[in-house]
Write a structure and sequence with these properties.
Helices cover 72% and strands 0% of the residues. It has a domain of 71 residues. By secondary structure, it is mostly helical.
Length: 232
């Protein structure tokens, strides 16, 4: 009888031990699956976040984190770059993409070396984005951003970029200086750019004869500077 009881007890213990091992095996097998599922969910959330921080219209990848962590400031700057690029391209004074994201100090250095694309970028950014440029190394506080913008566009004309003269004409007109606007528009026409014709006929309708004469004298001086470059 004792032998039979011992055999039954031993069998029961072995059975319980086997059941325990089986349950542990099931739990162990289930854990990697749950962890994997959680990881997939996080990954999908990250991809969605990345997609939401990429502005429409195609933003340079420089401004978008591959992990979807682009800051609102990055997105803002990227939007400015995209808008500027489209505007400049449509109006005939576009530059290669790398000039749009070059730091101020680098653009200034290239402009001193006669790089027309750097001159155009400085002219455009100083006119419309000076609030961002003042934060960068090399910003010139000795003159207004508008005055610096005029200077860079004028230099671009001087070294051979004809469309920059037409751009200057519109910029001066927007600022209320119709004499300078007339002068630069006259120079653009002299150099063969008639892109402002429709705009000019409406803009200069009320300009006086004396103002026209003054503007044409200025235009002649600007032409003398520009023609030196064209004749080289």
């Amino acid at each position: 009888m004792w032998k039979r009881f011992l055999i039954l007890s031993t069998g029961l213990a072995c059975g319980l031990f086997c059941i325990r091992l089986f349950l542990q095996h099931d739990v162990t097998e289930a854990l990697p699956s749950a962890a994997s599922e959680k990881k997939d969910v996080r990954s999908e959330g990250k991809l969605v976040q990345h997609a939401e921080t990429r502005p429409a219209g195609g933003v340079p990848s420089l401004f978008t984190s591959p992990f979807g962590n682009a800051s609102s400031q990055d997105v803002k700057i990227a939007g400015q770059v995209d808008a500027r690029s489209k505007k400049m391209m449509e109006r005939g004074y576009g530059t290669p993409a790398e000039y749009h994201i070059a730091p101020l100090a680098q653009l200034q250095l290239m402009a001193k070396q006669g790089d027309v694309y750097a001159l155009l970028q400085l002219g455009e950014q100083l006119r419309n984005e000076s609030g961002e440029l003042v934060k960068q190394e090399g910003y010139d506080f000795s003159a207004s951003a508008r005055e610096q913008s005029y200077k860079y566009f004028a230099k671009a004309v001087e070294i051979g970029h004809i469309r920059a003269a037409a751009i200057l004409a519109k910029n001066y007109a927007e600022d209320g200086n119709l004499v300078e606007a007339y002068a630069w528009n006259a120079l653009a026409k002299t150099l063969g750019d008639n892109s402002n014709d429709a705009w000019a006929s409406a803009t200069f309708n009320g300009i006086s004869q004396s103002e026209q004469k003054d503007a044409l004298r200025k235009s002649s001086d600007y032409y003398a500077l520009a023609i030196r470059r064209f004749n080289k």
